[in-house]
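Running this now, will post back.
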Amino acid sequence: MIESKEQIKRWAGIVAGVREQIGQMIVGQQEAVEQMLWCLLAGGHALLEGIPGLGKTMLVRTAADTLDLAFSRIQFTPDLMPSDITGTNVMQFGTRGETTYQFQPGPIFGNLILADEINRATPKTQSALLEAMQEATVTVGQTTHRLPQPFFVLATQNPIENEGTYPLPEAQLDRFLLKIRALYPTKDELKEIVRRTTAPRTIRAQTTAGAREIAEIREAAKEVLLAEDVLDYAVRLLMATHPEEPGAPEPVSRYVRYGAGPRGIQAIVAVSKVRALMQGRLHVSLSDIRETAAPALRHRLLLTYDALAEGILPDAIVADIIAGLDSNR
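Update: finished.
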């Protein structure tokens, strides 16, 4: 519960400290770091897309160190089985020959889970992870085991190499709160990466917060006010992604096959509330909606073949929708 402005300032300071510590380890990627924090504090999961070598693993590991959370990495491969993720019952032999079964937890039992190259595992294994993400529980045999809290999954995909992969279906992509892009570093950022990784001194992130602070911020974000006109703006933005809607923008009618579902606007509002709180505000603004729309919708728009052939990205379509809404205000 939000009790005072000082409390809001303290939470904003905690997030700023986490951001600063991550910046000590990660060069650039400010947008990816910010959106990962939005997703973590909103209680969702994120899909991170980027070519190899951009520091995706380091990003999640550093966030775990800064927040004093248990980090676990799962490398997805075609031969990975669901029990390799969730864990399984192991037979134990007693001194008199009796047998019992003891549950051996899998790597999913952590706080920050890196699901590396999730599209390389079979759909059966992908479903085991996505079920755990949705329910925050794992059922083995007839026993249900609760996952530790906070529980945050960041799944990665390589957008270049698609040979031998199993793309996530749209219904499963929809379970990720945000889709985050890891951008290629600039010239100056490449220089700084080389300096840090080849220097004799190793930098380590310091712990600045813990599970208690994350729980506090998550609950406080739900109390952030959402004005009716701001909610109406978000609803009109989402409805504009549907090509069959009257008055749909020309890029949507031409390049979008199916628009975003209800989870799209839920994601926009949830992360907008977190963004507002991180900036010390108790209300969601239109700028929050504009900034969170692209990462919340880019994996929820199913594009046409023309869009794929012409290299049209979902972000450009969302930007056109926002521009049209703003010009009609």
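The first strand starts at residue 46 and ends at 49. More later if anyone needs it.
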